[in-house]
Design a protein that fits this description.
By secondary structure, this protein is mainly alpha-helical. It contains seven helices and no strands.
Length: about 190
């Protein structure tokens, strides 16, 4: 088996794993026990924020981030909840982006060479130099799931720097609102 075929298989398996776990989570409902998670994290004392960031980073690759954002607000309050959530979100987005880039970019570029995909290929070429504002707009508008966008941008010609900065700026406003919702919940309970 050659390296390109193995990359293709890994990339497709990665996408199916994300989709499968996302659907399984949606079907089973948002059954994340925030109190249980809070008690568990409190057992780690000063290491609780680091553990939360690790859980957030890995967990949000496969399931929606919203419950984790709310939990960040509940457990750490608004200010620290936003900081820990921001770090975890950015790490998660970078992992999905780089995994997609490593295993899927060359395969997708070959697909885009097809004459019927010429317009899509032209847009992909433009993204190499004009992606920053596109990413901010795509991240601030809920057009598609966070990781789906990370995968698409990972297989595109977007520069890593533009992706990271655009993602950080673009998702922060909605993420802050969701963390605030978590802090609000603690006030009414």
């Amino acid at each position: 088996m050659n390296w390109q075929r193995l990359n293709k298989i890994v990339f497709i398996a990665f996408i199916f794993l994300i989709i499968g776990l996302f659907i399984a989570f949606e079907v089973s409902g948002y059954e994340i026990d925030s109190r249980g998670m809070g008690q568990y994290l409190n057992n780690f004392g000063i290491w609780a924020p680091l553990l939360f960031i690790i859980i957030y980073t890995i967990g949000t690759i496969f399931i929606p981030a919203t419950p984790f954002m709310i939990i960040a607000g509940i457990l750490f309050g608004f200010k620290f909840g936003v900081v820990y959530m921001f770090i975890g979100s950015l790490l998660s987005a970078i992992l999905v982006f780089h995994t997609s880039r490593k295993f899927g970019k060359s395969w997708v570029e070959k697909i885009l060479e097809h004459r019927y995909l010429a317009h899509l290929n032209e847009y992909n070429q433009k993204l190499e130099s004009e992606a920053f504002w596109h990413i901010i707009i795509l991240r601030t508008t809920p057009i598609m799931p966070f990781n789906a966008l990370s995968i698409l941008l990972g297989v595109s010609k977007v520069k890593t720097r533009d992706y990271v900065i655009g993602t950080a700026i673009g998702f922060l406003p909605s993420a802050m609102l969701t963390v605030y919702l978590g802090t609000f919940v603690t006030r009414i309970i």
